[in-house]
């Protein structure tokens, strides 16, 4: 909403923000360029060495369950899938479980605010932040990559429907859909 | 008509604005930009806009905002008509078309007006006492009543408008953009807090229009304009106009409904019409103002009777003078202020004040003021022509065309009360005010019962700063504010003669409320429901307090003893589209797709919605019928080799030293002997001993397992196991994670499955010795890392191959290519159903339908007597072993050429039509191409002991009966030699 004070009382111009062609683009990226590891331990609070390797986005998604996101395809050697009996930690390569949808553009934040219940204010969700939240009925891992760029990690089986959902949300912003091969 | 009949040049917020053409009831009119539909109709001297709910009395405009009770019109739109729309809240746009409601043929001439003459026959609650005879005629009566009653007509066309919703978080949400709200927003905004300021009008600060006081040295309206300008440039402040706070819930959750667009969308306009906001606020400031009460006298519902604040408001906002000879009936100084504005605009104003003294502001503006006076009655059914005045000098008729009522103010406490806050009656001020507020919620200004401008601004300012930690600023300074003289004590409503309306929308009069009390309805909640007081779309905004007063008088008690009814969200009616927002049909049922979905589509499969998944039902070739396709696929599995996508099966990885103990507790059979590299089938029970889920668990390593579940049970089983580990067995060292999404799975099945697998197994020994039945291996298939499990649901030699889901399509293609020498084709879910049925494999939800224990489905041998497991105690209950339990059997037609009817029950041949004589029912049914006839699995009372018995499969609704024979529940390869060879 744009307000301008003039005369006796302020008039209000209604606008959808910086709408216009490609105010937001929703790109399905099937060839995910990330590595995701899910680590599960029995303890609600991890004991022992902190399992947050440098360079990975980390989100605790359940008691004792951590999802790690690496933004390139490089493999980090000390995170091998399998069960480690010393730490009693099960590590699963979750890369194939997710697909990525990138939402970018001037209205990306406004579009995601329609879907996500978490606070997307830059102070609460700065660039680099990663959270697992709900987009309607979808569970999404949301990363704030750059100022107007967000990556949404969603269950592989639901990515098609999520893209349709986001496109519907982006209708007022004339969202554009793309597929990145 | 030019629309200038009542427009005052140079007045209002938009003097000289562009002309806007619109229609009402088929006639063309002109208004101007910035008008509401109500102000435009008043400007065109349109007096009758609707007919009342019950008595079909002519009605005009009563208010100026969402409190409007009578001016309800239908707005005609290409995207779907909108009935029961308040004319006061519709912004005029070019081409708007509206029509009156509840009248035929028109609101000016309504054939149902006879109901008003017959109104003595229709007192409140009459429908509880009439239409009782003859008893069979009620449906006729109801048909008539429905046609006569009600207001608008529900549109039948699909609503094609665009709606949306969004979430927001804020530190402070301020409901109301008047003086208190602006003051709160300035204070909060300057302190650095995130602020959302909400107002239902297109403009903020409307309450300061016409205010003579000076704020911080400026005229009040100039102060408001500057405050708005300051707020609009604060990055931390979001201003939402045309937005109603519709509901307030616990923990700072607030629903807003924003009208983004009034006019229809243009050709390429993507904007939504409504936006629903779901806001989480740290603090909520309720600056919702107060609603002026009507006065209660005979015929106070006539067109041309409105609240005094509305009359002044149409002048100040829209430059429309709603009357030229105006009687202001008042009990307080507010009526005089309104009268003063109207007189200054050129109207001839007479103020009748029931008090004996008050402010001189109206008199100074040129109005005639009579004290100790009031209005008794109105003349003019289709528009006020005269008001009967009671004065110290006696009663007389005053010629007039408008009666403006100032009956006092009711703080708008609806949002306060939404979370259970209880309003408290303030006898001295004659209004309900907020009682105790929960933390984080505060009422300020008029909504808090305060009408002194300095106090209003101070309250708002303090509320804006409360609980914050940012910079503070001084409260606005006020000079020259008028102090309100005390209001009159209430008049006795019961003294009002004639039809004196309390609830204008529901046609509820003082007499109706008195009758209800006499009939024994004493509680305000009972009176409300019996009389419909406050039950209209206005939710009693104008009438509730007068209604409480009338009930108190009838009961001979104080108002405080009556209280109010419970206010519930929404504050105003919300469009259903705004609530539904993005739940379009396509998006309402999202479907999960496997990694090979596109390949199935290309292969021409017929899709099936299987729970949350889209799965191939079968793959039609050429002009095959459904049955021909399924039969072909089944025989391909039985005689050759085929492949099916089984990715939907639930998969849960499990690890830890206590996994064996955990498996022993949740499955009925034993797991202690399970070797690494082998799997075992198990069934899970509920606590009541009924079968819950089943599947195969593979042991991958010493402390690492992967469990399979049914497709539909994956989530429930994982949740259940997690709950057990977190609450009952937290001492067990077991960790779980669902991995259904991670893996794509294809089952290669048929006598030649091993030959095909050998071509792609990359060195893995897939011989019967190297990969025996129920074994699992980790290796590569077609160069893809894979887990291979030799398990079978079809009853044939079968291998389930699991690969990371992002390589699922690659695997599918590779397997099809490997099976090319055998002309291998895929098969679907329908064919899988026939195959498992031939083998007698039960399915959760069909044969195991929540009331069957392991013995019922023939798996009593899987119940271990050596260990404890969930459900064990229940299996020992007497009713678990009674002879007539429904048990799994097979059913075949006596004549193989006959079909067994769907949804059939099993009945005795000598009593096929006996009511209550069903012995059981068909659970699953299919034509078996392997055997050449129909086969079925059924649940039959005492079935295990009735093998060979002749019964009838009867489907009475379809009118079909087939003689059948009860057989053992496995029709093919009883020994299982084909799957273990």
Q: In a nutshell, what does this entry contain?
A:
The complex is a heterodimer of chains A (181) and B (981). In chain A, 10% of the residues lie in helices and 39% in strands.
Describe the structure.
The complex is a heterodimer of chains A (181) and B (981). Chain A has 181 residues and is mainly beta. Chain A has two domains: 18-32 and 97-179, Probable tRNA modification gtpase trme, domain 1 (Gyrase A, domain 2, 2-Layer Sandwich); 35-96. Helix content of chain A is 10%, strand content 39%. Chain A has helices at 108-115, 159-169, and strands spanning 2-4, 11-13, 25-29, 35-40, 57-62, 65-70, 82-84, 89-93, 98-104, 130-135, 138-146, 149-155, 176-179. In chain A, the strands form three sheets. In chain A, strands 10-11-12-9-3-13 form a six-stranded mixed sheet, covered by helices on one side. A five-stranded antiparallel sheet of chain A has the order 5-6-4-8-7, with no helix packed on it. Chain A has a two-stranded antiparallel ribbon with strand order 1-2. In chain A, strand 1 (2-4) and strand 2 form a beta hairpin. Chain A starts with a strand and ends with a strand. With 981 residues, chain B is of the alpha+beta class. Chain B folds into seven domains: 19-121, Ubiquitin-like (UB roll) (Roll), CATH 3.10.20; 161-292 and 408-484 and 564-588, FAD/NAD(P)-binding domain (3-Layer(bba) Sandwich); 321-404, FAD/NAD(P)-binding domain; 493-557, Arc Repressor Mutant, subunit A, CATH 1.10.10; 597-647 and 742-827, 2-Layer Sandwich (Gyrase A, domain 2), CATH 3.30.1360.120; 650-738, Aminomethyltransferase beta-barrel domains (Alpha-Beta Plaits, 2-Layer Sandwich); 878-980, Elongation Factor Tu (Ef-tu), domain 3 (Beta Barrel). In chain B, the strands form 13 sheets. In chain B, strands 8, 9, 12, 13, 14, 15 and 28 form a seven-stranded mixed sheet that branches. In chain B, helix 4 runs parallel beside helix 5, helix 6 (308-318) runs parallel beside helix 7 (333-344) and helix 17 crosses helix 22. The longest helix of chain B is centred in the C-terminal third of the chain and has 15 residues, at 714-728. Chain B is elongated and about 115 Å long. At the A-B interface, strand 1, strand 8, helix 1 and helix 2 of A face strand 8, helix 5, strand 12 and strand 39 of B.
């Amino acid at each position: 909403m744009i307000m301008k004070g003039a005369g006796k009382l302020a008039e209000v111009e209604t606008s959808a923000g910086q709408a216009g062609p490609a105010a937001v683009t929703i790109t399905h990226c099937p060839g995910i360029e990330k590595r995701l590891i899910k680590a599960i331990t029995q303890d609600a609070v991890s004991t022992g060495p902190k399992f947050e390797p440098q360079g990975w986005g980390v989100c605790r998604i359940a008691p004792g369950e951590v999802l790690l996101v690496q933004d390139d395809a490089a493999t980090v050697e000390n995170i091998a899938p399998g069960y480690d009996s010393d730490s009693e930690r099960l590590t699963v390569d979750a890369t194939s479980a997710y697909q990525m949808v990138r939402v970018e553009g001037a209205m990306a934040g406004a579009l995601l605010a329609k879907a996500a219940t978490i606070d997307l204010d830059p102070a609460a969700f700065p660039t680099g932040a990663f959270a697992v939240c709900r987009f309607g009925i979808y569970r999404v891992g949301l990363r704030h990559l750059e100022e107007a760029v967000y990556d949404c990690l969603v269950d592989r089986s639901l990515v098609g429907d999520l893209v349709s959902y986001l496109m519907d949300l982006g209708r007022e912003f004339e969202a554009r859909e793309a597929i990145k091969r | 008509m030019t629309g200038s009949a009542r427009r005052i040049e140079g007045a209002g917020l938009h003097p000289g604005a562009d002309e806007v053409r619109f229609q009402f009831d088929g006639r063309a009119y002109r208004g101007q930009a910035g008008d509401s539909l109500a102000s435009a109709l008043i400007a065109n001297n349109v007096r009758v806009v609707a007919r009342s709910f019950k008595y079909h009395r002519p009605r005009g405009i009563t208010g100026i905002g969402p409190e409007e009770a009578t001016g309800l019109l239908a707005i005609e739109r290409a995207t779907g008509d909108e009935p029961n729309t308040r004319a006061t809240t519709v912004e005029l746009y070019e081409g708007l078309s509206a029509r009156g409601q509840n009248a035929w043929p028109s609101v000016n001439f309504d054939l149902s007006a006879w109901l008003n003459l017959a109104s003595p026959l229709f007192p409140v609650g009459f429908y509880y006492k009439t239409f009782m005879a003859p008893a069979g005629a009620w449906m006729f009566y109801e048909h008539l009543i429905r046609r006569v009653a009600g207001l608008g007509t529900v549109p039948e066309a699909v609503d094609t408008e665009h709606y949306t919703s969004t979430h927001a978080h804020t530190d402070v949400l301020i409901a109301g953009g008047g003086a208190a709200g602006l003051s709160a927003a300035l204070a909060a905004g300057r302190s650095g807090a995130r602020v959302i300021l909400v107002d239902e009008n297109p403009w903020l600060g409307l309450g300061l229009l016409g205010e003579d006081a000076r704020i911080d040295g400026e005229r009040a309206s100039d102060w408001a304009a500057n405050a708005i300008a300051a707020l609009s440039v604060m990055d931390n402040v979001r201003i939402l106009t045309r937005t109603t706070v519709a509901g307030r819930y616990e923990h700072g959750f607030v629903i807003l409904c924003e009208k983004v667009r009034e006019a229809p969308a243009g050709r390429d306009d993507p904007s939504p019409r409504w936006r629903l906001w779901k806001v989480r606020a740290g603090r909520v400031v309720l600056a919702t103002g107060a609603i002026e009460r009507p006065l209660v006298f005979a015929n106070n519902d006539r067109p041309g009777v409105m609240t005094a604040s509305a009359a002044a408001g149409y002048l100040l906002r829209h430059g429309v003078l709603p009357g030229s000879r105006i009687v202001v009936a008042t009990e307080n100084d507010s009526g005089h202020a309104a009268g003063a504005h109207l007189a200054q605009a050129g109207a001839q104003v007479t103020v009748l004040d029931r008090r004996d003294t008050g402010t001189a502001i109206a008199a100074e503006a040129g109005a005639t003021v009579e004290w100790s006076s009031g209005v008794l009655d109105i003349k003019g059914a289709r528009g006020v022509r005269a008001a009967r005045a009671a004065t110290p000098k006696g009663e007389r008729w005053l010629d007039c065309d408008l009666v403006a009522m100032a009956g006092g103010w009711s703080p708008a406490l609806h949002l306060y009360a939404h979370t259970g806050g209880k309003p408290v009656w303030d006898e001295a001020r004659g209004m309900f005010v907020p009682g105790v507020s929960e933390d984080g919620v505060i009422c300020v200004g008029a909504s808090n019962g305060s009408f002194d401008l300095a106090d209003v601004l101070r309250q708002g300012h303090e509320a804006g700063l409360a609980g914050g930690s940012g910079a503070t600023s001084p409260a606005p300074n006020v000079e020259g504010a008028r102090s309100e003289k005390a209001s009159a004590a209430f008049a006795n409503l019961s003294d009002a003669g004639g039809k004196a309306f309390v609830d204008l929308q529901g046609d509820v009069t003082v007499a109706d409320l008195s009758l209800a009390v006499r009939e024994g309805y004493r509680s305000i909640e009972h009176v409300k429901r019996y009389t419909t007081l406050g039950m209209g779309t206005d939710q009693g905004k104008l009438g509730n307090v007068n209604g409480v007063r009338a009930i108190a008088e009838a009961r001979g008690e104080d108002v405080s003893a009556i209280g109010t009814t419970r206010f519930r969200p929404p504050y105003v009616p919300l469009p259903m589209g705004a609530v539904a927002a993005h739940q379009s049909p396509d998006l309402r049922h999202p479907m999960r797709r496997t990694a090979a979905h596109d390949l199935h589509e290309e292969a021409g499969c017929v899709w099936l919605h299987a729970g949350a998944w889209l799965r191939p039902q079968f793959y039609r070739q050429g002009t095959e019928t459904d049955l021909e396709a399924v039969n072909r696929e089944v025989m391909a599995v039985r005689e050759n080799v085929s492949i099916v996508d089984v990715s939907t099966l639930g998969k849960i990885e499990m690890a830890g030293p206590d996994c064996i103990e955990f498996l022993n507790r949740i499955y009925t059979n034993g797991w202690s002997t399970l070797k690494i590299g082998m799997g075992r089938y198990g069934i899970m029970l509920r606590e009541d001993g009924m079968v819950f889920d089943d599947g195969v668990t593979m042991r991958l390593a010493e402390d690492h397992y992967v469990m399979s579940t049914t497709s539909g049970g994956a989530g429930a089983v994982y949740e259940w196991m997690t709950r057990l580990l977190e609450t009952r067995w937290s001492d067990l060292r077991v960790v779980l994670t669902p991995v259904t999404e991670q893996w794509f799975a294809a089952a290669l099945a048929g006598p030649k499955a091993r030959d095909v697998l050998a071509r792609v197994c990359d060195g893995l020994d897939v011989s019967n010795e190297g990969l025996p039945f129920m074994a699992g291996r980790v290796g590569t298939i077609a160069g893809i890392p894979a887990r291979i499990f030799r398990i079978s649901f079809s009853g044939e030699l079968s291998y389930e191959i699991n690969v990371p889901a992002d390589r699922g399509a690659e695997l599918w293609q590779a397997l099809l290519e490997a099976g090319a020498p055998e002309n291998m084709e895929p098969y679907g879910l329908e064919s899988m159903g026939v195959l498992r049925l031939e083998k007698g494999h039960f399915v959760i939800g069909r044969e195991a339908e929540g009331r069957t224990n392991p013995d019922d489905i023939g798996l009593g041998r899987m119940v271990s007597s050596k260990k404890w497991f969930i459900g064990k105690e229940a299996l020992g209950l007497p009713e678990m072993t009674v002879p007539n339990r429904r048990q799994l059997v097979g059913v075949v037609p006596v004549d193989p050429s006959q079909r067994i009817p769907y949804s059939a029950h099993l009945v005795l041949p000598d009593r096929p039509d006996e009511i209550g004589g069903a012995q059981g029912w068909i659970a699953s049914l299919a034509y078996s191409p392997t055997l050449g006839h129909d086969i079925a699995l059924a649940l039959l009372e005492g079935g295990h002991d009735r093998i060979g018995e002749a019964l009838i499969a009867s489907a009475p609704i379809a009118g079909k009966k087939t003689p059948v024979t009860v057989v053992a529940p496995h029709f093919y390869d009883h020994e299982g030699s084909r799957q273990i060879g």
